[in-house]
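Hi there, hope your week has been kind to you so far. It would help a lot if you went through both lines with me. No rush at all, and the record is pasted right below:

***
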Amino acid sequence: MRTKHCVWNWLQNSLPVLTFDVMRFRGPLALLLLGLPICGFGQLGPTELLPEWGQAGWSNPAIMHPSGGHLLIGGLSGGQVELDHTGPTYADFIGADGVVNPNALLSSMDPTESIGFRSETPIISVGFRDEKRFEFRLRSQVVTEQRFDYDRDLFDIAWRGNGHPDNIGRPISFGGMGANAQVYFDHGVSVGAMAKEDKLWLGWGIHLLNGVAAFQTETFDVEWTTDTLDYSWDLAGAATLNAAGLNLDSLLNQGEIEIPGGGGLPNTLGSGVAFDFGFLWRVAPGVELDGSIEGMGGMRWLESLSRKRVDPANFILEGIDLVGELEDVGLSSSDSISQAVEDWAAALTDSLEATFPVESDPGLAAAFDTRIRETWRLGMRFKPSESLEVSVMAYRQFRFGQTNDGGLFGVTYRLRGNVTAHLQGQYHSSRWMWGSGLSLRGGPVRLSVSARNVPGLLLPLDAGHWQGQVGLSFDMGYAQKKKRGKNDLGTGKGMWH
């Protein structure tokens, strides 16, 4: 029986021989590959913190824009892209000599890691502000967000093998794996108002969500155990996948993403609503406390649905008796060994597909729900002078069923309302990131650029997070300090007076 274990170790070294045939088992493979190139949690930056950036009033609807109004046009402003990896960076397991260190890779990983992607493509955003106490905003944008989760044990098995003493007899679960993605239109209305004169500002918003396409890993339960006596494998698994606006048969059988329809404007396949809430409280002169809840809600997908499932099943693999097979045919050459391994791999793949068939649910697929990214924030601002601001903030994000916490601090310098520079440090996914932003105003035109992880842009192999944003907006109304007085949030009586 020990022979099978030794043969399997030899088989690991012959992995290239198996590559082509294993590709036949496309169902689980497509599930794994769906999110690899494209799909975390977002980070926070100047766009969420500072009034000069047009998006601040959407992150916290109590924060008012410094101008009487502002206009952002799709293709010119407000677009942003985020790429986020919670696991180790390239530099964590590649030495200065370029040699891979698998042990360093495994030691730096959590049990489950994620690769995430998010983009926001603006269509239009406009805001109107009453100088004394009120601001009204409208916005439409297209949001794409994806996430792929993978287990550390995948790399452990690949490097140390199932025959390692730490892995023999240990149930290895891959239940944390899965891919989730959605594309939707976000049409929002937001209001900010002064509730108490120069003391308290409140804000709230509502988002109408129109879903374009979605993919959801509802369940993915796979467990692999290597027997302590004969080293056979016991593979148990089940999975359920949901999709809207995607052809799952094409995805699972050919590994291709096919979107039904003949082009043109996308159909609305799901709908939902989300809510925002925020406050800003001037505790003392130069000291402000603010907090918000953004994106509390989600969508129900009702049209162009498909659902695939793999029913619970067990598969026992006893290994390949390579010596016996070669003796039966009287062969011993390397070509014969390779042929025997290829035949065994083909039979194994057929057996796996027969044991874990990907089935379609009969009748109409059931509707399913997804949530959009939800962010909770609580921060404090210190303003020792009119031009200088120091801020700290803690946050929690919810996305695709996972939770992530972080914190940041920032320093902002303003020069006559025309130039705003921002530097910040942020702790996110067990890493520090250093970001910056710059807002320049010339007449009614404001140009804003920001990056939440500048070293990540300069040294991408050492970073796990990348985000950048460029914005061009048009400010309207009372922008000069001399017209507004000292209070950049608004003056006059609050709505409670």
Observations:
- The longest strand covers residues 200-226.
- Residues 125 and 139 are 4 Å apart (CA to CA).
- The longest helix spans residues 334-355.
